[in-house]
Each structure stands twice: as structure tokens, then as C-alpha cells.
Amino acid sequence: MRFDLSVIASWVEPGARVLDLGCGTGTLLEHLVRERGVRGTGVERDEEKASAAIAKGLSVIHGDIFEEIEDYPDRSFDYVILSQTLQQVYEPARLIGEMLRVGRRGIVSFPNFAVWYNRLMFLLLGRAPVSRELPFEWYDTPNIRVIPIKDFRRFCRKKGFFVDRELTITTHHHEETGRVVTFLPNLRASYGVYMLARA
Asked: 95-124 as b/e, with b when 16 or more CB fall inside 10 Å?
């Protein structure tokens, strides 16, 4: 399992009720159900990925995360997870607000666009960064948000989202190993992982 997903899994209490938005093929959800005994539900827009998750025996809804989350009553879950999807969301404040309406805590992770090698690519090559973490060219990327760690912290303060827990890490996309970055995380970390609550 990816290193960032391992971090998220370690934050979820055993037996919790979990909603995984944009769950993909269900890698994290499957781990949480089997290893931590959670009662989990996933939402995935991509039909093939949703089918793959359902084939694993997981409870997954094929649909849009904005539409599906609105159907849940307040405090239906202990955790609502949005892993590496925030950069593709049109209304991030609205979605996080909904996550914290239906869940006690929201866990959000995203690639840090301000990591040093992205800056270097802009400075030396004058090109939009393309890396293993951000493998798309400007014309075919699903990423509509450029999120540096520093800006995400400011966004949370401005919108009234309390950061309950934060871990900045460096790892390559899809790798199972990585390390925690505590010194100059906005420059050195490739991902940010946050646990949020209502302020």
C-alpha cells in the first residue's frame, strides 16, 4: 500500500465508521476493513475502479462525490477521507465543509506543488512541472488546483477548518516507503496529510 495511505490508515481508530471519497479500486478501504475492522463505504466516479472495488467485496457507490455525500445525515461517520483528490475538486471549501458535516473528522491528502523539484523545473526550464507525483502535461491534467502546503494551511485558517493533525512526507507516487519531513516542509515534502475538524 502507498506510504501516504499507510499514514492515513494509522490515523483511523479500529472499528470506526469510514467514508472514503474517490476510493479508486478500494486499496485503502480494503485495508481498513480487514486490518482495522472499520465499517467502510466508498464513493468512486470511475466505473471501472468502482467495479474493481466492489469485486473485492467492498461497499462502494459508483457516483459523484458531491452528489453522494449530500445524501448522508450529519455525523454519519467517524472519518471521511479524501486522498489525493482535492487537487481535482472544483469547490474544495464546500466539499470539506460537507466532509465535516457527515463526519467527526476529515482526512485530506494532496501532492505539494511547491516541492523543490517543481520549483526548479519552473525556474530552470520554464515549464509546468511533470514528475512521478504529477505525471500530467498541462493540457491533459485532471488537476485543476495547485496546492502548496503553505497555502493549504492558510486556506484552513480562513475557512475555519481546525487542523487536528498534520504530517508532511516525501515519497514517490505509489511507493510503499517514504519519510516524514519536519524541516521546511513546503519546500521539501512531496505530500501533505491533514486531519481536519470544525473549528
From this structure: bbebbbbbbbbbbbbbbbbbbeebeebeee
Which phi and psi angles does 15 have, rounded to 5°? 80, 5
How far apart, in Å, are the Cα atoms of 50 and each of 23, 40, 62? 8, 14, 6
Round to whole Å and give the CA distance between 35 and 18: 13
Q: Mapping DSSP to helix (H, G, I), strand (E, B) and coil, where does residue 183 land?
A: coil
Separation between Cα atoms, residue 67 and residue 65, nearest integer Å = 6
Residue 197 CB neighbour total at 10 angstroms: 14
Unique residue bearing C-alpha cell 501533505:
192
What are 30-67's pLDDT values in tens digits? 999 999 999 999 999 999 999 999 999 999 999 999 99
Predicted model pTM: 0.92
Give the strand order in the sheet containing 60-62.
60-62, 39-44, 17-21, 77-83, 103-111, 191-198, 161-170, 179-180
Question: At 197, which helix (H) or strand (E)?
Answer: strand 191-198
8-state DSSP, 82:
E
Q: What is the pLDDT of residues 140-163, one digit of tens each?
A: 888 888 899 999 999 999 999 999
Between CA 194 and CA 101 the distance in angstroms is: 17
Half-sphere exposure of 149 (CA within 13 A, CB side): 24
Instruction: Provide the strand spans (E) within 5-160.
Output: 17-21, 39-44, 60-62, 77-83, 103-111
